[in-house]
Amino acid sequence: MRVNSYKLQKAGDFWAMFFSHRMGRTGFLIFCFFIFLALFAPILRTVPPEISGSADRILTGPDGISWLGTDDLARDVWSQVIFGSRVSLIIGFVTAIITVFTGTLVGLVAGFKGGIVDEILMRIVDFFMMLPHLPLMIVLAAVMGASIWNIVIVISIVSWPSTARLVRSQVLSLKERPFVEAIRCLGANDITMMMSEILPNVFPVMFAQGVLMVTETIYAESVLSFLGLGDPTTISWGTMLHFCFESGAMARSPWWVFPPIVCIVSLIISFSFLGTAVTDILTPGYKEKMGY
Amino acid sequence: MSLLEVKNLCVDYEMRRGTARAVNNVNFTLEKGETLGLIGESGCGKTTAAMSILGFVTSPGRIAEGEVIFKGKNLRNFTDEQMRQLRGMSMSIVRQEAQNALNPVLTVGEQIGEVLREHGIRNKIDVEDRVDSLLEMVGISPERKKSYPFEFSGGMRQRVMIALAAIAEPELMILDEPITGLDVIVQRQLLNLLNDLKNKMNLTALLIAHDLSVIAEMCSRVAVMYGGFIVEKADVVDLYEKPLHPYSKALIESYPRIHGEKKKLVSIPGSPPHLLSPPESCLFAERCKKATEKCFRCIPEETIIDSRMVRCHLYSEEECNV
Amino acid sequence: MNIKFVARKILASFLTLLAITFVNFAIFRMVPGDPIRMMFKDPRVSIEDIEAMKVKYGLDKPMMGQYINYMKNLAKGELGISFWQKKPVGKVIAERIPRTLGLIGLSLFLAVVIGTILGAVAGWKGGSKTDSAIMGISMTLYSVPSFAFGILLMLAFAYHFAIFPLGGIETPASGFTGIRKIFDIARHMVLPSFSIVLWYIGQYILITRSSMKDVLSQPYIVTARAKGVRERRILTRHALRNAFLPLITITGVNIAFMTGGIIEAETVFSWPGLGRLFYDAVMKRDYPLLQGCFLVFAVAVVILNFAVDLLYTRIDPRVRINGEAVNEG
Amino acid sequence: MKKNLPILKFIAAALFIITFSTTAFAGGAQESGAAEKTRLNVAWTAGQSLDSLIIDENWQYLEMGCTLWQLCYDQLWIMGDAESGYAAQPMLATHWDVSEDKRTWTFYLRDDAVFHDGTPVTAYDVEFTFEYLPASDPAWDMVDFYYESMTVIDDYTIEITMVNPFGMPYPPMYWAPILPKHIWEPYKDNFKSYENDHMLGSGMYKIKEFKAGQYVWLEANEDYWGGAPGVDEIVFKIYGAEDTRNMAIQNGEADMVGYLGISPLTIEDFEDVEGIDVLISPDINIYWLNFNLHQKNGIQDLEVRKAIMHAVDVERIIEMALVGYGEPADSFVYKELEWYNDDITRYPYDAARAEAILDAAGYKDTDGDGVRNEKDGSGNMSYELLATADVSEEVKAATIIAEMLGDVGIDVQLKLVDTDTYYNYLYTPDEDYFDFSLSTEGPGPNGEWFWDFCRGWDNGGAGWNTAYYSSDEFDTAMDNMMASNTLEEKNMYRKEMQKIISEDIPYGIIFRKEIICPVNTAEFTGYTATMGGTSNWINPWSFLNIEAK
Amino acid sequence: MSDNELVLKVRNLKKYFPVKQKEGKRNKKAMLRAVDGLNFDVKRGEILGFVGESGCGKSTMSRTILRLISPTGGKVYHCGEDIAAMSDEEMRKRRRSMQMIFQDPFGSINPRRSVSETIRMVLKIHKICDSRAEEDSVIRNILEEVGLTPVESYWDKFPAMMSGGQLQRVSMARVLVLKPEFIIADEPVSMLDVSVRIGILDLLLSMREKHNLSFIYITHDLATARYVCDRIAIMYMGRIVETGPTEEILGNPQHPYTKALIAAVPEPDPTREINELPLKDWTAEVGGEDSGCRFYPRCPVGIDSCLLKTPILTETAEGHKTACLSFDKL
């Protein structure tokens, strides 16, 4: 297999641009930090996060034993935070994959097929976009019961349409691009055209949308948990907050309330930064402007 | 005194992999009432050169060297506000018809009149009168000034652009490929319109084109650009009859015509140079049939032959000292 | 205004509303367990009582019959009786709407004004330090959940400094009237509206900035500069107006999303509006009320979207004249 | 850059003005507007607040509901405070007689009581109330009101004959608002159709203003037969969450908490606050493990239940979940009551013994995954523990219980749901939504109704019997208890019933909380703490006794 | 002439699009007759030029011929076979011999594929080669043939790194690798720099020589049409107004529109006089009237009957046909 030097250069350019993009760099570093936390949580933790401690360590501030203090069952906040990052990242990614996959499929088919298929699919999409998101999530979460996977489903239900709409508009404009017509003219069938010509060109949008979905999911999980509709049996940042609010001791235990908030905010920021950086880089003209 | 004098203009684009010199040591003057054509292929730096006259060089580009002297004053020393005063009033530009050169949400009349209003002519009636007469001049019924750009066809929009550029009767008008991308008959009409205006207003114009024919019909003098350099500068007729630079010659020979005898045309092999880290040699050398060993060694200097300027080793005596 | 365009929009909105009523109806029939059972706190309630209740709430009929019934009642403006409050849902909601409108109106107004101005400045000064600063702030604001803002604001300004009240819409049992009452309400509005505003500002800055940057790269901006138009005028007349167009569209799309902020803020600050009502209804599993609130939210979104479309036609001549939105990418 | 500065300045200025003006004007207004009237501010959390004044089950089950009606209406008699030993205290009825068979009760009403509109309270109002109130709402349909006939003897005398013998230590007809007949007459078939905006009764307070979800403003009934109350106004303020409510007390917005008290975690926050005292009293509620005997698994096995009881370290639960503010409990009957049976079977914490019991009963970890298997080897001993997710202490207690049972090899899955779903599941044990649950109720000093928890479903039980427990022995004892006429006899059966439950463990009673109530003692005095705190459904005394200093 | 000699036979080809037309304040539904009754043949080895301005229907025509869009009416025969009658799969296979080169070299090649992959894709679609090695050699040969040498330096290049001329060669290679009989070249050089245009046109001509290919060369530029075409058809609003051998048309135009077109072409000759266009009113609004001559509103020699009678192509000289009533009259 020969090494394609142009491809390498292209990839190299991307990463160079990415790392010279201040937001991209910052976002990536924060993101890596959380990935690190999540991957090595069992090593990094001090005690298992779900095990309650002794009564004299209830709500103790940060000290040598518990780096970030303890909660109202004397559980270690630091361990909860790092294990919580697993949950947040997993539901973020799973939701992103589900929504982006569904949205892309719908958008691709609608945009490519056009006509009545497009019309029907887009009416459905419009309808879903019109539904008030958080109320719908709340209602569904209330109806379906509290569990992490229900949250994933709930967020997916309300989030896929925006991806579908975006992908569709991309597909519509791609469909008009001469190279699609050219490949059709060269004898390609619909599947080939969709999969090998249009889909790869939709990747940037899918990526940006996926990143957005991760942030929305993390956000939504925290809001639902805050409202008491999260899954109280799984340790996530949202449920940490939930228990903190519920305990009534929020005002006097900042070490308990701030870590999950800081984590939520910084993970969302990191994804927003990543998204912005990638969108910037993929914007036509950016490459030239930055001199690549 | 010339109306415009461009001296040693160099425009650099700072790229990650080096600096690209889009405009390289460009010199030309523009006398009052004269039309100078600037011809070259895409990416040869002609638009950059024109835009730097107006002070529009945006990052990552910058004017590295040189002077732009307009009516005896170096524009490079002007403040932003001074440049603004100049634009629209003393110098204006008609750009290649792009879909969005006119603001989609403002009426055509508003956009034309704005030139005057922004330069201190506040009397409403005066402005409206002037807009009406200009529209009429470019062949648009004044009633249509209440229309929005999207209600016009491409040719009509370009007429609006011309009206907009001409309304303040500027001393210098830069025409940046004003008819490219339009239909043949519309092109012809616009060409005729521009020629009319030129005569009526005694315009001084810098016409940028990639097309010999347009230059031939409008300009008295022409400068040929290649790879950021002006490679030849001459009267239009002289150039056509006896091009000195091999590039000019090839350009003329490769241009198909509909009148006269059908000739076998000669194409120029290869493709235009990449301006990022170009070789220290004549940039045309690789495509030049007459290139000698010297051409691959050093950059030719400007040479004056019969009051024509050419930048080619064929005509220079001096030795290459590299 | 293009009548056909408006008519088409009205039809589309109507169809959406119809679909929403169906979803609204269906979701609450998916509830596991027995909603009627939940109405009775007393375990000794007899089967007869439950059956009687089912008849009362029309839950004994088959699904289709229930839906028709529901639509009939809806047409009459009846949303059922709240399980919890025992009052007609319509009445309960009607009382709350003005409060929420007031809160969201003020917040949106502040967010849009401040957000667009800052966003425009950032977009205008693209790449500068001002831009980076505004951008950094807005992304941070955008990333902080509304409720977290609310809690922080409350801890700071209502607890530690005690400048503002801890919650509610007015001082309880104050007996204030006239101007004092207005000031009292305004004072209660500050913290909740800021918790919403801060989040929206972030969003609006981001949207305006990118829209602005997009517009500024358009050839007509170069045209305007070449005409010698003053920079400030380019900003206000040429750039902002065009930048508003996608902003309006996105606002339309985002309205559905915005109902979230109001729920969070009203919950944190116990602002007795629709959001709080919705939250209470969820917590108490008061299904008729929940259904009613959800319907109101959905209808509000549809109406606001419709209003946004109309606004769009006012601002964009292309839509006004042709009746077709020009795709702004 | 420079040109845009004015915009930023403008924004900053606008924000400043908004903030400043609203603060200055309204803040100032509030202080100067304070009336010379004494006002007690009571802080409630939204979950306990009343959203309408319509008479419904919320008057019984919602703490704010029962507080409000107890203040606005009079009852025939009320339960005394802790000092009086929770003895019956006269209210509308100045005294009462009972026949030999303890079935016919005659109440003699005071003649000086008037409703807020000036109409006198007569025996006809009492008759009306008891005739139609229980019929109107299943929640009022209680043993206390199972009468055979009612006779109005004269305006101020009423004779009521009960279906069952009734008495010891309390008369019947407890805990119902005496409604004005002249107002409710038109709505007698459905009380819920009357909006009842003013709660017009004969109580010592009147509703001045009611704003759903915001506040209730009560003013003193100056014409109250017992004399005007000690404060002129009471305002029940509703706060969104416990934190906010606590802050309100700390910064002086409120003088006492309405009900349930504060979380023990936050008690330190109040200790240093000047003018605030913290009153601690035992809770009225008792916590137990509610075993679902309908489930076809190890839970049905008494040995398993015994092992579970041995495996649960109640002291640790109290330390962890309640920060020490609680005490172990082992019976439905409070320790301080006369008929508490000291001689019941107890299951002290002993994990080793628990394991031994399980081993002996054949629940062994046969597949080596760390979790014991069912006796017949049909899978793990993995049980769902149902608890409400809405109460922090209960979540914590359930978490710790799960941990402890995990230590003896029983895998416990927490099933934390909202309160309504919780009760929906709990009240239908036959649907097997749970294996066992952490439950709580408050029997009150008059705990007669509480035995319904154990009466078999086939024997007139159901309803409260959320353990799906059935024991002929118990049902017989209960019947005997109901039929007995003397306190001694009753107590004998009551003790027997406690014994039976402690042996069968359908309910594994574990602990009782303490209620912590911060109160403003700088301005007010007279707070009356009984079991359950300064204010709850058996205790309107604080509001009756409080006086401004 | 046998059908086999006629690579393409087009008979009464029509393509209408529904459009909204403004009539006063109201929108009226109407048909845009983009292609309205075309008849022509293309012989083997012939280059037929279609010249017209934007909107004259020439692109619609080419897409209709290749069945990228279905015609409203009329027939297209490829080597005597009606392509409308073919199934989709047959048509897909038939595309091997009917190909198209697009105007925009930057847009018509997927930016995510390198040069070799672009061509390999085509080979894969038609399963032309059995092995990757065979593919490689085919690609190498075709790249050499279109003048992209040395092949190695182009092999892995992406479109973004190439000039328009090079890309247009790639798209020609992509088409030629299928060994088609007939190619529609839709303004193949209009987006290229002047200096490389002739190179592409020469390549086109040499391919014709080498493989006896037939071309339809679509352009708005009479000068390049003259350079490559054997015959020319002038199109105006969906109809052919004049057709004939290239030199005949340019030297002896009959139709007023053709005359105007020729007059409008700017010449690179500074000595030439600039003359006014022989047109009545170019800015006049023109609709697609069903009957009558569509050029009438702009025609300097139009008469009243032009409004009523649709002119048909009439032979005026050997192979030279014109559709004009005023010409009839003459």
UniProtKB/TrEMBL annotation, chain A:
- What are the GO BP annotations of this UniProt entry? transmembrane transport
Mention any Pfam family matching this sequence. OppC_N
Coiled-coil blocks? none
Query: Do you know which SUPFAM superfamilies this protein is assigned to?
Result: MetI-like (SSF161098)
Please give the start and end residues of each transmembrane region: 26-44, 87-112, 202-220, 255-282
Topology within the bilayer: Multi-pass membrane protein
Which keywords has UniProt assigned to this entry? Cell membrane, Membrane, Transmembrane, Transmembrane helix, Transport
- Which InterPro entries does the protein's record reference? BP-dependent_transpt_permease, MetI-like, MetI-like_sf, OppC_N
- PROSITE patterns in UniProt: ABC_TM1
Q: Which GO terms describe its cellular component?
A: plasma membrane
Q: Respond yes or no to whether keyword Nucleotide-binding is given for this record.
A: no
Question: The ABC transmembrane type-1 domain covers which part of the protein?
Answer: 85-275
Localization terms from the record: Cell membrane
Major site of localization recorded for this protein = membrane
The record's listing under PANTHER family reads: D,D-DIPEPTIDE TRANSPORT SYSTEM PERMEASE PROTEIN DDPC-RELATED, OLIGOPEPTIDE TRANSPORT SYSTEM PERMEASE PROTEIN APPC
Family according to the record: Belongs to the binding-protein-dependent transport system permease family.
What name does UniProt use for this protein? ABC transporter permease
Source species: Candidatus Thalassospirochaeta sargassi
Q: What is the lineage of its organism?
A: Bacteria, Pseudomonadati, Spirochaetota, Spirochaetia, Spirochaetales
UniProtKB/TrEMBL annotation, chain B:
A Pfam family matched in the record? oligo_HPY
Q: Which PROSITE patterns match?
A: ABC_TRANSPORTER_1 (PS00211), ABC_TRANSPORTER_2 (PS50893)
**Alphabetized InterPro entries for the sequence:** AAA+_ATPase (IPR003593), ABC_Ni/Peptide_Import (IPR050388), ABC_transporter-like_ATP-bd (IPR003439), ABC_transporter-like_CS (IPR017871), Oligopep_ABC_C (IPR013563), P-loop_NTPase (IPR027417)
* Protein's name in the database: ABC transporter ATP-binding protein
Q: Which taxonomic lineage does the organism of this UniProt entry have?
A: Bacteria, Pseudomonadati, Spirochaetota, Spirochaetia, Spirochaetales
Which family, according to UniProt?
Belongs to the ABC transporter superfamily.
Q: Where is it located?
A: Cell inner membrane
Specify the superkingdom: Bacteria
NCBIfam families per record = oligo_HPY
| Keywords recorded for this protein, A-Z | ATP-binding, Cell membrane, Membrane, Nucleotide-binding, Transport
| Keyword Transcription belongs to the record | no
Q: Where is the ABC transporter domain?
A: 4-252
GO MF annotation list: ATP binding; ATP hydrolysis activity
Q: Which CDD domains does this entry report, sorted A to Z? A: ABC_NikE_OppD_transporters
Q: How does it sit in the membrane?
A: Peripheral membrane protein
Q: Which GO terms describe its cellular component?
A: plasma membrane
The reply on keyword Transport is yes
| GO biological process assignments | peptide transport
From TrEMBL, chain C:
Superkingdom, taxonomy of origin: Bacteria
Q: Name one GO cellular component term.
A: plasma membrane
- Cellular location(s): Cell membrane
Cross-referenced InterPro entries:
BPD_transp_1_N, MetI-like, MetI-like_sf
Q: Does the keyword Transmembrane helix apply?
A: yes
Residue intervals passing through the bilayer: 101-124, 144-169, 189-207, 243-263, 289-312
**What is the predominant subcellular site recorded for this chain?**
membrane
Reply yes or no: does the keyword Cell membrane apply. yes
> Keywords assigned by UniProt?
Cell membrane, Membrane, Transmembrane, Transmembrane helix, Transport
Q: Where in the numbering of this chain does the ABC transmembrane type-1 domain appear? A: 97-312
**Topology in the membrane?**
Multi-pass membrane protein
Quick one: a GO biological-process term for this protein? transmembrane transport
Q: Which Pfam families match?
A: BPD_transp_1, BPD_transp_1_N
By its UniProt entry, which SUPFAM superfamilies does this protein fall under?
MetI-like (SSF161098)
List, alphabetically, the PANTHER family matched: OLIGOPEPTIDE TRANSPORT SYSTEM PERMEASE PROTEIN
> What family classification does the UniProt entry report for this protein?
Belongs to the binding-protein-dependent transport system permease family.
Q: Any idea what this protein is called?
A: ABC transporter permease
From TrEMBL, chain E:
Q: Which GO terms describe its molecular function?
A: ATP binding; ATP hydrolysis activity
Q: Do you know which Gene3D superfamilies this protein is assigned to?
A: P-loop containing nucleotide triphosphate hydrolases (3.40.50.300)
InterPro entries named in the record: AAA+_ATPase, ABC_transp_ATP-bind, ABC_transporter-like_ATP-bd, ABC_transporter-like_CS, Oligopep_ABC_C, P-loop_NTPase
Note the superkingdom of the native organism: Bacteria
Keywords in alphabetical order: ATP-binding, Nucleotide-binding, Transport
Q: Which PROSITE patterns match?
A: ABC_TRANSPORTER_1, ABC_TRANSPORTER_2
Q: What biological-process GO terms show up in the record?
A: peptide transport; transmembrane transport
Query: What SMART domains does the record point to?
Result: AAA
* Residue ranges of domain ABC transporter in the record: 8-262
- A Pfam family that this protein carries is oligo_HPY
- NCBIfam families from the xrefs? oligo_HPY
UniProt name for this protein: ABC transporter ATP-binding protein
Species the sequence originates in: Candidatus Thalassospirochaeta sargassi
